[in-house]
Amino acid sequence: MKAGAGAEVDAGAKANESQSRSYWSRGWRDLFPEESFQSWGAYRRAVAETPHRLNDRFQSRSSDAAELGSVRRRSENDMKRCLTWWDLTWFGFGSVIGAGIFVLTGQEAHDHAGPAIILSYIASGVSAMLSVFCYTEFAVEIPVAGGSFAYLRVELGDFAAFIAAANLILESIIGSAAVARAWTSYFTTLLNRPSNSLRIHTNLAHDFNLLDPIAVVILGITGTVAMVSTKKTSYFNWVASAVHVVVIVFVIIAGFAHAETRNLKPFFPFGVQGVFRAAAIVYFAYGGFDNIATMAEETKNPSRDIPLGLLGSMSIITVIYCLMALSLSMMQRYSDIDTNAAYSVAFRNVGMKWAQYIVALGALKGMTTVLLVGALGNARYMTHIARSHIIPPLFALVHPKTGTPIYATILITFCSACIAFFSSLEILASLLSISTLFIFMMMAIALLVRRYYVSGVSTKEEQVKLVGFLLLIVASSMGMSAYWGLRPHGWVGYVVTVPVWVLGTLGLELFVPQRRKAKVWGVPLVPWLPSLSIATNLFLMGSLGYESFIRFGICTGIMLVYYVFFGVHATYDVAHGEDGEIDKLVNGSEDKVAAGGEKA
């Protein structure tokens, strides 16, 4: 205890010293404060130890208390607890409903699903709700800004958390860029101009040849608002989202008023394979809900407010998406749907030319709130990732007056603006979907590990069984996905893969005891719902085109190179420094508590 108390005092003294400095008076030492980067000699020694350090990071895990305590203190100042379930519910609307429904619905109905686009939204909605359950349990028990990064760091370890961090950064940057590009398309519709008329045409490669300065401007504006105050951003989001809901109700009612059932034939013009291909793409429309989990650190009562905000908003949003998709499919034949501004053009074609301006205005408001809430949530992801030193800890700092992570917000906004300036929505959406699905799949695995494994309590035999059954679940899910991609009209492969998935899940339930129960709110029907989440996310990943996997592999490879030459050394230094010693003491205390609870 004396050693732990001394370390705590030293850490507190360092924190006070940091807080006495101006937020803006930071230098090179704040970007790379770790021992490995203090000289070329130190860096060469660190690189020589890379295999040892990789092994150390691969085996290390954080803890609930460490994430809530010593890791969070690295931001120097606390974020302000100012949000309620009401704020989170409206943040859910503002974060999710935007470019996905207004742009991707038309694009995927025209190219892949036809009128069956409603089934695509149902399939992706079910998968998203399974992931929402997992996020909610974690967010209630580990209410920190890191969201899935923090949860995976606790349950699957540092290396798995880095893989998540790489994809979270990719998702954050590309998601904001995609919505900003869509914002420009609907702005041109509002001005009654062609969709690409405000973009700069160049001779660059296809999908990169239309430069979008307006997307850069709107990203700059929303990023600036998000830096000022979380609560004031919430007020703005309330108003904008309320207007957006009114527009959505209008779209649904007016759409069904001009519905023609003949437009639903043929219902499956691209077959069932097209439905799941579209489902994997429109999953992007549900992706914003994880931003709500990152606001747990600023929520007044996480155990009550997060379940209400997350589950409530996502349930309503799923119904809204299905109704909007059906109204569009019945209003216009799938082959005539405009892929850039589907709803506006559809109303114009049924004689409601004036309605296109209402739709365009509503879509702009919706996409603006998506960007606004995205700037909040993505910056908080980056903040917690920086707290772990995977990226420079400068980006973990919270401003003492605003209570917001300004450096992290600037980083996300700048990177998103660079991508949005060059890249098309289509190439961004496919890459974003695979990244999102991958993270949600890892979250479901982490939930199962959390329930069935506690260090110091679970026996070696239980660990082996847990790993074996998880491998069966993941392998069978990958087998179903691969068979679907290779033989979309076959059935023999499912005779093997589905029973194996059932066997893995049933084995987990019967032969491995749950070593941890949810403290306040827990996922029901464990292990079946998390296992189903793994299967659906992998299945939807398999429905994406091979180009998405190539881009995903290239991006992940680049980030792994970054990890080997920077991330592993920074996190190793921190883990074996003062904070690391404190974390080890905390982890040991947690294990004793868990063991005591189990014996009791």
Q: Can I get a quick summary?
A:
It comes from Dioscorea alata. This is Amino acid/polyamine transporter I protein. The chain has 600 residues and is mainly α.
Report on the architecture of this protein.
This protein is mostly helical and 600 residues long. It has helices at residues 2-19, 28-31, 40-48, 50-59, 64-68, 70-73, 85-96, 99-113, 117-141, 148-155, 158-190, 213-228, 230-257, 271-282, 290-293, 302-331, 342-349, 355-387, 406-422, 425-452, 460-486, 492-511, 528-542, 546-575, 578-599; strands at residues 200-201, 210-211. It has a two-stranded antiparallel ribbon with strand order 1-2. The longest helix is centred in the N-terminal third of the chain and has 33 residues, at 158-190. The two termini are 25 Å apart. The model is unreliable at 1-15 and 580-600 (pLDDT under 50). This is Amino acid/polyamine transporter I protein. It comes from Dioscorea alata (Purple yam).
